[in-house]
Design goal:
Length: 207
């Protein structure tokens, strides 16, 4: 009787899966040892999708700790764009740079004391007009802001339309529309972060 190599195929597949898992673990271990060269900070009101965006960018790889001297938790993760490893910081929800709560004081301290290469201000597309004053505060503070207009799908369902180009011209910083829960706009946002930081980084001068 001719031998059916079914179990050989299964064993080979299992070996391949184990190699893939090992490679993934080794890749994560190597990344953990590498020091991030850039920092991206996520800011915005509560309930605008900040944490979902954080998870989408970092792949759920995070370290959560209390900000020194407080009970406020801050999540930090990592993402890679091209050859560059970034630290991603998810700040506590805040409405303004003029803090009224411990969470806002921690958020303000993070934004002003930890140099970020890009500050992603996540805003709810359904309530954009109410959130833009915070965007302008961040810009006026001299921070490298990218405005992330999130929940575009929800806004469209209730008839809200936003001209992204006109909005970008008005605020003078990059603007990206997203619906991060479904993944919409994430690739565009990654590209915008990469291009924005590259445009702000002085080119190396050959001698």
């Amino acid at each position: 009787m001719t031998r059916i190599p079914f179990f050989d195929i299964v064993r080979d597949a299992m070996r391949g899966a184990k190699r893939t898992q090992t490679d993934a673990v080794e890749s994560k271990a190597g990344e953990a040892e590498e020091t991030p060269r850039r920092r991206v900070m996520i800011v915005g009101n509560p309930n605008v999708g900040k944490s979902v965006l954080f998870n989408r960018l970092t792949g759920h790889y995070m370290v959560v700790s209390n900000y020194p001297g407080t009970t406020v938790e801050v999540a930090r993760g990592r993402m890679r764009l091209g050859e560059t490893l970034y630290e991603v910081v998810d700040t506590p929800g805040m409405y303004s740079l003029r803090p009224l709560s411990e969470e806002e004081r921690v958020g303000r301290a993070l934004i002003l004391n930890e140099a970020a290469d890009a500050v992603l201000h996540v805003a709810d597309a359904k309530n954009l007009e109410r959130m833009l004053p915070f965007t302008l505060q961040l810009i006026e503070a001299g921070l490298p802001v990218i405005l992330v207009v999130n929940m575009m799908d929800e806004a469209e369902r209730i008839g809200v339309k936003i001209d992204m180009e006109a909005l970008q011209d008005a605020v003078g910083v990059p603007v990206v529309g997203t619906a991060v829960l479904s993944g919409r706009g994430l690739e565009e946002l990654r590209n915008a972060i990469d291009e924005f930081i590259r445009s702000r980084t002085p080119a190396a001068v050959s001698v």
